[in-house]
Amino acid sequence: MKKLLLSLSLLFFSNLLLFSQSGMTVSEFKVKLERYFNEEMIEDIFKKVPQSTRFTIWGWDVGDYSGDNNPDLAFSIKILGDGRKITYVYLFIDIDGYLELVYVEPFEYVELPLEIGISIRDNKCSITQKKKKDFWTIKSYSFENGVIYLVEEYDSQIFSGYGLEKKVNYKTNECSFKIESLSNYKMNYQSNFLFVPSYSRSKYAFKGYPIVTNVDKVDFVVKGSYYWKGENDASFQIKSSYDQSFLYFTINIVDDNFVPKDCEKCVGDKFVLWFDFQPFQNSLRRLFKQSGNQFLPRNKPDGGIFSIDINLGNLTDRQPYIEAVNSTEPLDNLQLKAVEKIKIFFTSQDGDYILKIRVPFSFFGYEGIPLDGDDPIFLGFNAVFIDVDNEFRPNEVTCITNSPFEENNPSSFGELILIPDFHRFSYAKNIYLDNLLRILEEFGF
User: For position 170, what pLDDT does the model report?
Assistant: First the structure.
């Protein structure tokens, strides 16, 4: 943790040596851009930044973050005379030989505009920001098919004697945490899991927002990794949505040999959903609890942990059904009645298998969706595919899920995120959307 903060600080101060504390003038910046762009492209850039105000450039980089092998541009400016501690970051993409402005946002700094850093690497444009002392963030963006979107987000901070690193990949839906004590009390904890975003069924999440979670990593084969031959042996994709009364899941399963579970004591393929249905404001609060001055993994549930065991049937005459429902706390009458409202559909299509599940919120003890406002809520969640390739070898079972999962340990769970407002969770913008809406309005839509 200290090494990382030192590296960020060295990056900041090395940049400080390259720039005066007044920034770079437009004329100086144009000279540097001549190495990458022709005169017409450079003039187009400055037609899309403020024309009536004077500004200086404090950070910039050129590279490809749209995947077409053409140089793109990113830079930050400080408006002269603006007493606020704000710089503006501009991202330009080369589209058919024209530099198109795809992103502009204000970023607040603490002491100097140089704290807002720009770097283009590995088809990503990363924006580094110092939030406060010992707290840095890095947000990385990519551009694809007309959409600029957030790919990764990284936080590094020191608070209350602890160092915390957090990384979220919005393309793979993977999240990792590392927390360590910087005092005499030694505590080191790491967590790595896949999250499943869930959006309202009344809204459409367009490209750029995380939608589908691929569960196909050996890291999350929690049983029988020796027998797992790769994603074609056993893996799945999962996506989710909700309405006021129900949670919905659509799961595409890849299995090279589907083995139906013909009886209660027989071995066979099955699917299990696990829920630590205690809503939290963020992942950190879901994973950790504070005891005095100490942060400890949340290894005991605050409420009930629920599981739903699903027998997948045999794809012919025997339909899928709920084999078992379990909870760490007794279910009341309303929850027992809610079990009858759980619906399951299972079929095969193009060599894969599709499982659809509907679960009422009343099963978890809620009258409806436990959302209050536009902020997302974070729940412990695991979808577990239990794969049996040979019914005559019952010990050769593979279990693959979305975290290094332990049934009664909430801090080991993956995550289900109920998201009422896309923009409060991630970022994506279609640069053609405004023109499309204008055209539709002209046609009377």
Answer: 96
Per-residue confidence (pLDDT) for residue 18, from 0 to 100: 45
Give me the pLDDT at residue 444, please.
62
Which sign does the torsion angle of CA 395, 396, 400, 403 carry? positive
Cβ atoms of 247 and 359 within 8 Å: the answer is yes
Q: How many CB atoms lie within 10 A of CB 93?
A: 23
Residues sharing a CB contact under 8 Å with residue 29, sequence separation 6 or more, in sequence order: 57, 60, 75
121/62 Cα distance (integer angstroms): 9
The CATH number of 196-425 is which of 3.40.50.410, 1.10.10.1400, 2.60.40.1190, 3.50.30.30? 2.60.40.1190
Q: Phi and psi for 268 in degrees, rounded to 5?
A: 170, 170
Q: Which helix (H) or strand (E) holds 126?
A: strand 124-132
Cβ distance 308 to 273 under 8 Å? yes
pLDDT at 221: 96
Rounded CA Rg of the chain: 25
Average pLDDT over residues 273-295: 88
Q: Which residue has the tokens 């999250």?
A: 195
Determine whether 149 is exposed, middle or buried from the number of CB atoms within 10 Å of its CB (0-12, 13-18, 19+).
buried
* 3-state SS, residue 138: strand
Band of pLDDT at residue 290, cut at 50, 70 and 90? confident
51: number of Cβ within 10 Å: 7
Pairing of strands 124-132, 135-144: antiparallel
Calculate mean pLDDT across residues 153-181.
Answer: 92
CA 119 to chain centre: 21
Q: Which two tokens stand for residue 323?
A: 């084999």
Distance from C-alpha of 2 to C-alpha of 395, rounded to nearest angstrom: 46
Where exactly does CATH 2.60.40.1190 map onto the chain? 196-425
Return the higher-pLDDT residue of 419 and 389.
419
123 — phi, psi (to 5°)? 60, 30
Cα–Cα nearest to 189, from 176, 171, 203: 176
Calculate the CA 44 to chain-centre distance.
Answer: 35
Helices (H), 243-370: 283-287, 333-339
Between 278-287, 292-301, 349-358, 380-389, the lowest mean confidence (pLDDT) is in 292-301
- Please tell me the predicted confidence (pLDDT) of residue 373: 87
